[in-house]
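tokens incoming
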């Protein structure tokens, strides 16, 4: 793998980009986090203008999974306050280091798949779980949050592709209906909306169609389940967040464009 002035280049797909690109995995702080943040902010603002939306309508989540606590601390110093992590064990280890680095006044949500046997720890260390995809997980999160005297914000993860590696509930899945019927009875969970990941495809219109489906599903489910809060549409990652904003996203999850690509082994 060639090295060029402090970073290495890998051909292929970078993160969730829909077009073949050069992946850049940073050795240190090439470009600086603040510079990358400013670039992302400019793109978010431009997408909001195209969609006739206010910039404050869209939250920016920095996806710090597989990056060290020091990277998250740098982002916090640059003003970021909302982060996403994929794994319970990874963030549990990172959390102690963040405390030593003096990182506070931030919120960290679990955005990766949650196994039911890790719900207690997830309820303890995360400020929200954005990937609820079963009644069992919801019930166990509710029980754990109740024991800690907290009300945990959650999103329901929706699967809108046939990709076998994707998790979430299909719109026609009976488990989705059961989950939405059960959530009002779980007082320690605060339902806030839906999350999805668009299919990996070179054609950006594939992502657009996915995001439109989620927005339409939110409207449909909101009518059927009037007692639930569907305010959030968490959709859009580094390669498709501008399209997601144009289609109504209220929360974009940005990893590679902010932190650089994660190092590739080998």
């Amino acid at each position: 793998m060639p090295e060029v002035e402090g970073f290495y280049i890998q051909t292929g797909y970078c993160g969730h980009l829909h077009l073949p690109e050069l992946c850049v995995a940073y050795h240190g702080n090439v470009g600086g986090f603040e510079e990358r943040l400013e670039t992302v902010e400019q793109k978010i603002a431009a997408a909001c203008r195209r969609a006739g939306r206010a910039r404050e309508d869209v939250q920016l989540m920095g996806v710090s999974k597989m990056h060290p606590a020091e990277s998250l601390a740098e982002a916090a110093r640059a003003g970021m306050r909302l982060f996403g992590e994929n794994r319970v064990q990874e963030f549990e280890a990172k959390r102690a280091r963040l405390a030593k680095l003096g990182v506070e006044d931030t919120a960290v949500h679990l955005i990766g798949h949650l196994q039911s046997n890790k719900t207690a720890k997830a309820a303890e260390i995360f400020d929200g779980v954005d990937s609820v995809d079963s009644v069992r997980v919801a019930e166990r999160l509710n029980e754990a949050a109740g024991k800690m005297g907290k009300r945990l914000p959650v999103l329901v993860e929706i699967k809108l592709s046939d990709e076998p590696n994707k998790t979430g509930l299909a719109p026609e899945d009976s488990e989705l209906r059961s989950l939405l019927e059960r959530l009002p009875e779980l007082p320690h969970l605060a339902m806030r909306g839906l999350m999805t990941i668009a299919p990996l495809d070179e054609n950006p219109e594939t992502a657009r169609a996915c995001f439109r489906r989620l927005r339409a599903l939110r409207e449909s489910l909101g009518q059927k389940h009037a007692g639930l809060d569907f305010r959030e549409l968490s959709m859009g990652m580094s390669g498709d967040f501008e399209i997601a904003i144009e289609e109504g996203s209220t929360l974009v999850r940005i990893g590679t464009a902010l932190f650089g690509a994660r190092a590739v082994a080998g």
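note: The two ends are 9 Å apart (CA to CA).
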